[in-house]
Write a structure and sequence with these properties.
FAD/NAD(P)-binding domain, Enolase-like, domain 1, disulfide bond, Lipoamide_DH, about 475 residues, Dihydrolipoyl dehydrogenase, FAD, 7-stranded mixed sheet
């Protein structure tokens, strides 16, 4: 007998499981299909982000930073530490326990909200029917009034460096190293490459990052990207731009990577190689030929601003649709779609989706960059404030970086907040809250910020937009 649901969600990642929970909260009979198995061989929720992405990478980033501080920076505080060492398997095991706790938490939320978990591979058929194939090959069909496709993304493979899951790994494999490689290569200087490269560099690996583009962090505000390149290079990451990988060969537990750059043909040998050149949507075998759902030229599911596909009642969210591949974007799309199915007029503000790179210092932004606004011909005023002038940052021995606020020169409305430095993600979120309510730089400048805090750097940068900063010299008006 065919099971009938108001909503069937394909995929239990941060888009899918959030969509399922919100739909159930709104009184809709909801099922969520997931096939991903954790280390214990059981189906787990949370998708890439929770299991092999955002969460485990942050656990390793935090552990490696604490080790780095103990080894390199505690002396500044008068703390004498000798013989600091890192137990890599223990660090990786801690990461695994955090993931397991969160897996259990999401499963508990499904039970609390009445969401039915269906284990297996989901495929959309014609007429909003969803075929679920279990691991044993058995098939059942779910009938849905509405379907939400949230099948996520996976790492892109490149022919010059095919993953062997031992010496050449993708981002998932880079979370499982049981020892620190002496020489580590990273292909791709994006978010994933820089974060994972940072983890192993802090623990003692000699890290070389090969980036095909000639511009570092091309999507980031240029002033922030320039500062990031300087600081990450100072930390020991050998970042080579305009370096195109042409081939690789594995011999005797090492990999030799061939690439071309401005100096011509080059080669380097590493103990491990991480391929982190981006991710692609998982749409293969998710849509039957007669499902009616259309893909764009890059394999993403075509949707409108409300995530509706070409088939009435069928939606797609997260990494399988346009926009940044970010967990929080997927989650908010999931909430929007669930609420629209329930008859509410929800909408995601795509102009104000924050993005973060969790290196140290963190790199975060919301809104538009200075370069984007100038290209659009918008007259702007810019205010910056360095953490070197922040008393709180000095107390924490964490003074690298700056806060940058960009405002419309005519209306003073804040159009972008960009930060590299301590707590960058949290400061940018403060900017995002203000921007969501149409804040002006003057508004931020008139608010009372606690002293001493890192948040004062945002306050001062907002004041600096109009030449009113107190704790740093203001630019003279031309």
């Amino acid at each position: 007998m065919t099971q009938k649901y108001d909503v069937v969600v394909i995929g239990g990642g941060p888009g899918g499981y959030v969509a399922a929970i919100r739909a159930a909260q709104l009184g809709l009979k909801t099922a969520c299909i997931e096939k991903y198995k954790g280390k214990e061989g059981k189906v787990v929720l949370g998708g890439t982000c929770l299991n092999v992405g955002c969460i485990p990478s942050k656990a390793l980033l935090d552990s490696s930073w604490k080790y780095h501080e103990a080894k390199e920076s505690f002396g500044v505080h008068g703390i004498e530490v000798k013989g600091v060492s890192m137990d890599v398997p223990a660090m990786v095991e801690r990461k695994a326990s955090i993931v397991k706790n969160l897996n259990t938490g999401v499963a508990g939320l499904f039970k609390a909200n009445g969401v039915t978990l269906v284990e297996g591979h989901g495929k959309l058929l014609a007429g909003k029917q969803v075929e679920v194939t279990a691991e044993d090959g058995s098939v059942q069909v779910l009938e849905a009034t509405h379907v939400i496709i949230a099948s996520g993304s996976k790492p892109i493979d490149i022919p010059p460096a095919p993953a062997d899951h031992d010496i050449i790994v993708d981002s998932t494999g880079a979370l499982e190293f049981q020892s620190v490689p002496k020489k580590l290569g990273v292909i791709g200087a994006g978010v994933i490459g820089l974060e994972l490269g940072s983890v192993w560099a802090r623990l003692g690996a000699e890290v070389t990052v090969l980036e095909a583009q000639d511009k570092f962090l091309s999507a980031v505000d240029e002033q922030i990207a320039k500062e990031a390149l300087k600081l990450l290079t100072k930390q020991g990451l050998d970042i080579r731009l305009n370096a195109r990988v042409t081939g690789s060969e594995v011999k005797k537990k090492q990999v030799t990577v061939h690439f071309t750059d401005a100096a011509g043909e080059q080669q380097l040998t590493f103990d491990k190689l991480i391929v982190a050149v981006g991710r692609r949507p998982v749409t293969q075998d998710v849509l039957a030929a007669d499902s009616g759902v259309t893909l764009d030229e890059r394999g993403f599911i075509f949707v409108d601003d409300q995530c509706a596909t070409s088939v009435p009642g069928v939606y797609a969210i997260g990494d399988v649709v346009r926009g940044p591949m970010l967990a929080h974007k997927a989650s908010e799309e999931g909430v929007m779609v669930a609420e629209r199915i329930a008859g509410h007029k929800a909408q995601v503000n795509y102009d104000l989706i924050p993005s973060v790179i969790y290196t140290h210092p963190e790199i975060a932004s919301v809104g538009k960059t200075e370069q984007q606004l100038k290209a659009e011909g918008v007259a702007i005023n810019v205010g910056t404030f360095p953490f070197a002038a922040s008393g709180r940052a000095m107390a924490a021995n964490d003074t690298h970086g700056l806060v940058k606020v960009i405002a419309d020169a005519n209306t003073d409305r804040v159009l972008g907040v960009h930060v590299i430095g301590p707590a960058a993600a949290e400061l940018v979120q403060q900017g995002a809250i203000g921007m969501e309510f149409g804040t002006s730089a003057e508004d931020l400048g008139m608010m009372v910020f606690s002293h001493p805090t890192l948040s004062e750097a945002l306050h001062e940068a907002a004041l600096a937009v109009n030449g009113h900063a107190i704790h740093v010299a203001n630019r003279k008006k031309r």
